[in-house]
Amino acid sequence: xxxxxxxxxxxxxxxxxxxxxxxxxxxxxxxxxxxxxxxxxxxxxxxxxxxxxxxxxxxxxxxxxxxxxxxxxxxxxxxxxxxxxxxxxxxxxxxxxxxxxxxxxxxxxxxxxxxx
Length: 116
Fold this sequence. Notes:
Elements: H1 14-24, E1 29-30, H2 31-38, H3 42-54, E2 58-63, E3 70-75, H4 77-96, H5 99-114
Antiparallel strand pairs: 1-3, 2-3
């Protein structure tokens, strides 16, 4: 089976997929909210956000100063499109492995077995 169109290797790892899925449901999210929602350390989340930002999938803003400094994150239009494409690709994979696909494969194999 070939990889469906829209499958995104960058988003696919579970941690990044969790981050992007969380951000897809909101306009902006605080760093602490993301960290706590997906149970990551600050450093692990920072690394994932940096990777996604470099790909153009996220925008990161730092607000305030000192102890009140807050980091806010949002999906860019490119990131939202990549996430939607990836979800569609995953759905295609799942649908291709479902009962209808199994029945079609069985129908395809039956004539070959009948010739034996």
